[in-house]
Amino acid sequence: MKIATFNINNVVSRLAVLTAWLEAEQPDVVCLQELKADQGAFPLAALEALGYGAVWKGQRTWNGVAILARGMTPVLTRTALPGDPDKAQARYIEAAVNGVLVGGLYLPNGNPAPGPKFDYKLVWFEAFNAHAQTLLDAKVPVVLAGDYNVVPTEADLYPNHSYGDNALLRPESRAAFQRLLDQGWTDGLRAIHPTGPLWTFWSYLRFRWPKDKGLRIDHLLVSPQLTDALVDAGVDRWVRDLDGASDHAPAWITLDR
């Protein structure tokens, strides 16, 4: 069972990119972020033609999240994060697929930091961590996949970077992510690849893609019930090189189930 996360950065304008990737890699489950489309503008028919069912929460211009499943429609359980401080923002969706509960998230960016946007990021993060603990307490197989907008450690971005006090690297952001891991979640990518670059995002600015100056901000966390089933993980870097690509590449894990 291959579960992927992909910040598509506009699902309508980048449908060709999404289609090329789905046809080539055929993931079983996909969490999408930054749909940037109204609920009625989501390209369901095009995805169904590729063999994918979907559930989604759209939002015009910003945000928006979806979960796709190959050969079936995910069983929707939530379209909002419990305790979300701003329910107008579409940042969380949850569904069951083949016995696994999948939470798809788009955590706030938080820039500029410090400031109100960073405060919102931290409040949202705490609400998410609280919900994550509730899921762990239920002792069911769970994957939490999405754009966390957190670079967990200095090993998760290019050397001699210029990000400084960017909200993705701030100590408060990293501490919140570590508290999440300390609950008992396993970082799927790092469990398979403990060292080395695993970039999932390259800014459009300053030629960072051709120079391979990337960051790892897209993560897939697995609950203890799935840790032993984790057999592979990776990043489909080739997608970032397509014409009209998102600034993210899909990240994925494979479960032996």
UniProtKB/TrEMBL annotation:
Residues at the catalytic site: Y106, D147 (proton donor/acceptor), H248 (proton acceptor)
GO molecular function, one term: double-stranded DNA 3'-5' DNA exonuclease activity
SUPFAM superfamilies tied to this protein: DNase I-like
Domain (Endonuclease/exonuclease/phosphatase) ranges: 4-248
Cofactor: Mg(2+); Mn(2+)
GO biological process: one example: DNA repair
CDD domains cross-referenced by the UniProt entry: ExoIII-like_AP-endo
Pfam family for this entry, one: Exo_endo_phos
Residues under site feature: Transition state stabilizer: N149
Residues with site note (Interaction with DNA substrate): H248
Annotated site residue numbers, Important for catalytic activity: D218
Keywords: Hydrolase, Magnesium, Manganese, Metal-binding
Keyword Hydrolase included in the entry's annotation: yes
Binding site for Mg(2+): N7, E34, D147, N149, D247, H248
Superkingdom field: Bacteria
Annotated cofactor note: Probably binds two magnesium or manganese ions per subunit.
InterPro entries per UniProt: AP_endonuc_1 (IPR004808), AP_endonuclease_F1_BS (IPR020847), Endo/exonu/phosph_ase_sf (IPR036691), Endo/exonuclease/phosphatase (IPR005135), ExoIII-like (IPR037493)
NCBIfam families: exoDNase_III, xth
Sequence similarity: Belongs to the DNA repair enzymes AP/ExoA family.
The name this protein goes by in its record: Exodeoxyribonuclease III
Biological source species: Caulobacter flavus
